[in-house]
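WARN no homologs supplied; continuing
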Amino acid sequence: MKHTRIGTAAATALLLALTAACSAGSGTSGSGGTGGASGGGSGDTSLTVGLVAEPVSLDFTTKDGAAIPQALLDNVYETLVAVDQQGKITPSLAKSWTVSEDGKTYTFDLVDNAKFSNGQPFTAKDAVFSINRVKSDWTVSLKAAMDVVKDAKALSDTRLQVTLSQPSNNWLYRMSTRVGAMMTEKAVPDLATKPVGTGPFVFEQWRRGDSISFKANPAYWGTKPFFQQVTLKYFKDPTALNNALLTKTIDVIGTVQAPESLAQFQGNDAYEIVEGTTNGEVLLSFNNGKAPFNDLKVRQAARYAIDHKALMDTCWAGHGTLAGSMVPPTDPWYEDLTGLFPHDLAKAKALLAQTNAAASPVRLRIPSLPYAVSCGQVVKSQLEQAGFKVALDQLEFPAVWLSTVFTDADYDMSIVAHVEPRDLPTVFGDPKYYTRYDNKQLQADLRAADSGTPEEQVTLMKKAAKELSEDAAGDVLFILPNLMVAEKGITGLPKNAITESFELAGLARS
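OK structure emitted
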């Protein structure tokens, strides 16, 4: 039986939550217009969004980091398919597609009126180039999502055929992420500074350390965006971010970094507060590749030592979700696993006493991001109550943390929010990833989940999540909430943030 999926182009915006594990930047000089400063009102077509994690480059093919697709995906770059707020795959540059009976061949019918911002028409040849380039030239770990592709070819300008080496439940979903970004070969030499895509916005300028600005794409093939000028303005200090909204320097706080500060906006008719969930797992990561966290008892002791409810209440004002695993509630294979490691100080002390881990300090190396700094102090205190000695080390983010922890794995523990969708296989399925977790059974289960039926995928992913939790491979402290505050009248703000992008085209001003 042949399966067909047809639908309308993806509509509403999804906002990438927060400050990610792997955020990144670099850039050019430019302006940073202030939407709020222009006074608001339905005739004001400029918008400024306040964010925290600034990219280190604009090239996500060679730089890991959630901040790059947060800014560029769905705004400058588009994908063949998109994901809606319920996690359903919907059309984008591909208006429909079919899947062969054996699950290996995908045939996409593409829109016929999309153009890159350099004026070049988008065709199936560009899709073939983009897919093949992930395999040949991308250097980031996420490129592995394209390994299953055996062949991609253009059947015509508007028809693309992709053949997989084996069935993959994961592949089409990954095509909605940065891995599926459609690019033109002519723009590749300047990816880090001048991204060119088919999206509703055109990259304009970058003021390093300050802002990135876009203008509406006058030749956009889809529904034209309301805002003609958008600026993403970056703040390292949560108070400065809040003050920027209060003083009308920005129109939207895209990532609230001090949840206790929401009180100053509550009950004020000038502002709207949006609260939902994300797929951002705040992970207390262990370096499983070396002592002391290559010892199961040490990892278990650390998990029992953490009082997750008290931690979330203290460092994130009670906002968020306790999950107990690397699976957020919006994923199909979510299960509440908080009961596997309830707070038990006596058990933590007993386990630690069976090891030599308490003899020397463990290095908790955290990024200089508000949630990590706030939660780091609580984690340190709770671990020390169980008998750990903890040396807390704050590293400048993104550059120093990415180099020291993410790339070199020079750490014992860290705290970072992993916001990439469905990222359990990425974080724990690759022994070369910074967690250095090598579990052959888990890897086999992940492969089987990807190649099995959709029902088998759910069953096996639940099994993998439980395996990880029981093995204490890391400790998910909580799932970040989607917390935004906006000037009254900004519409289209999503309740949940479960993709990599902060999609701007769905926003408007009433």
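The mean pLDDT is 91.
OK
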